[in-house]
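Saturday, quiet lab. Running sequence design on the structure tokens for the scaffold JK sent over.
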């Protein structure tokens, strides 16, 4: 019987599609991303359909064999029947959840295969965490129970590990960082299109696990007694989605073969070379949908040929990468700016990046440190090493480079609740609180950046009864003894100015703050 192996091209295709899908979740939900979900959903549905038909063939053959030799196959047929029942039960339950979620978003005529509101962010959570039901917890429990049961029936350790990994309900690393449960990471604030595709992916994993268990059960029966009664041609691609510049690869095979002869394979009107080993390759020079059609000829004993047609398609997508400053949409000169760089479907160690103005170094977890110079824009270029070893450009973004803005001077005081706060002037301040302050501070504090500056010097100024200004200076951030004495001599209602403030920023540029700090003694 045919089955999926741990490293089969079909399983590689499913895994790669899921990696692309997860990467897409990290992006903003745009119309292009939603269309991407539709493509992944369509591919998964085709895979589910093919797996279901494949599993039904195995089960029906096993059932026919049981009817002819029940004594020999009773144990294995009984286990197969139980696996099929449990698989269908969990599969149908997930289908029911998909229907309920779509109906919640699109109305009573909602169809999971034709979404009207793919960007709906509430339907999945409201259905899965409905008060009194909590289907999210039940789904996780059912998946765990199913995974443990089917894994216990598989003798091949590699396949067992794949099943346990595919059906794992362990929260992802990102979910753990956000302190989310598996249920919350799956359905909280998740677009309708994403929720439906996630559930379809689980259905696909269920059919894969079911097929591997059924195939393993068949192996426990004398294979020589199990007769093949149907031969079909299959196209098994490494992936249905290929990035432009990459290579589409697919195995063209029959479900049953005679090792004494090689069939002739015709793809898109051309004979596949015998030394290709049944593997078809095509360059992906432009984006779009491409067909793979053809047939396989197998020689009969009488010299005639038996023909088996096949048809498939693959998608070529444009290269893409995410380049996003962690703080804002500009880079600041002379300091370390955190930039997140990721390429969907490509591991972080295969991604490289460079900057045209300044330096760019990798920090970890898709975070890079950009330190540009002031005077010109910075262009960040991202390269990725593909599975075929070829390195290609994925994206190029231009960022404006600005100098750090001026900081705000402040005094760190203790409020009535005993908490440290930043006093920036303009409101009355108790003389006792002012006397207890040892130094003047300055920082950018705009809710995005919080960068401290070094205070180099400043002046303290007050006016005497005749209206003459009395000014004292400091060298450094600390108040001088003369300035302390001036503060102690202040009377309630008098105004004190901190002016001439000179600071040096993390970009090592010295600047004088224009606005003085005005303090009215309370």
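Result came back. Writing it out in full:
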């Amino acid at each position: 019987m045919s089955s999926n192996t741990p490293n089969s091209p079909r399983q590689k295709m499913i895994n790669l599609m899921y990696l692309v899908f997860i990467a897409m979740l990290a992006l903003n939900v745009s119309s292009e991303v939603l269309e991407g979900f539709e493509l992944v959903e369509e591919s998964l549905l085709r895979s589910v359909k093919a797996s279901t038909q494949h599993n039904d063939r195995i089960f029906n053959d096993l059932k026919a064999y049981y009817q002819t030799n029940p004594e020999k196959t009773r144990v294995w047929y009984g286990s197969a029947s139980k696996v099929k029942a449990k698989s269908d039960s969990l599969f149908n339950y997930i289908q029911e959840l998909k229907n309920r979620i779509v109906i919640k978003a699109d109305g009573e005529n909602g169809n999971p295969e034709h979404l009207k509101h793919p960007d709906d962010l509430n339907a999945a959570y409201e259905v899965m965490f409905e008060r009194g039901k909590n289907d999210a917890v039940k789904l996780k429990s059912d998946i765990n129970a199913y995974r443990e049961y089917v894994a216990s029936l598989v003798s091949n350790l590699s396949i067992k590990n794949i099943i346990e990994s595919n059906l794992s309900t362990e929260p992802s690393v990102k979910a753990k960082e956000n302190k989310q449960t598996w249920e919350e990471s799956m359905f909280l604030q998740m677009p309708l299109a994403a929720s439906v595709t996630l559930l379809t992916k689980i259905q696909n994993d269920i059919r894969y696990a079911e097929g591997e268990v059924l195939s393993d059960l068949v192996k426990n029966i004398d294979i020589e007694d199990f007769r093949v009664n149907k031969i079909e041609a299959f196209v098994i691609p490494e992936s249905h989605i290929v990035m432009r510049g990459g290579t589409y690869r697919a195995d063209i095979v029959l479900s049953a073969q005679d090792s004494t002869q090689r069939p002739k394979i015709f793809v898109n009107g051309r004979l596949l070379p015998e030394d290709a080993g049944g593997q078809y390759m095509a360059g992906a020079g432009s984006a779009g949908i491409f067909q793979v059609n053809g047939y396989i000829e197998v020689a009969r004993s009488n010299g005639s040929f038996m023909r088996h047609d096949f048809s498939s398609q693959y998608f070529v997508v444009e290269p893409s990468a995410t380049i996003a400053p962690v703080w804002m949409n500009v880079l600041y000169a002379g300091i370390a700016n955190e930039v997140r760089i990721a390429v969907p479907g490509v591991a972080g160690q295969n991604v490289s990046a460079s900057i045209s103005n300044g330096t760019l170094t990798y920090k970890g977890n898709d975070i890079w440190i950009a330190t540009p110079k002031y005077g010109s824009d910075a262009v960040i270029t991202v390269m990725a090493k593909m599975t075929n070893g070829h390195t290609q450009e994925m994206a190029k973004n231009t960022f404006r480079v600005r100098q750090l803005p001026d900081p705000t001077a402040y005094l760190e005081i203790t409020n009535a609740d005993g908490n440290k706060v930043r006093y920036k002037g303009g409101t009355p301040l108790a003389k006792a609180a002012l006397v207890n302050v040892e130094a003047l501070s300055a920082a950018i504090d705009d809710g995005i950046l919080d960068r401290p500056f070094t205070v180099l010097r400043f002046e303290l100024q007050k006016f005497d009864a005749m209206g003459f200004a009395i000014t004292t200076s400091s060298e450094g951030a600390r108040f001088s003894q003369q300035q302390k004495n001036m503060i102690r001599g202040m009377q309630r209602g008098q105004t004190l100015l901190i002016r001439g403030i000179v600071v040096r920023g993390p970009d090592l540029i010295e600047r004088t703050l224009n606005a003085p700090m005005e303090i009215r003694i309370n």
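Notes for JK: The domain at 231-318 is CATH 2.60.40.10 (Immunoglobulin-like). The radius of gyration is 34 Å. Ask whether to fix the surface positions before the next round.
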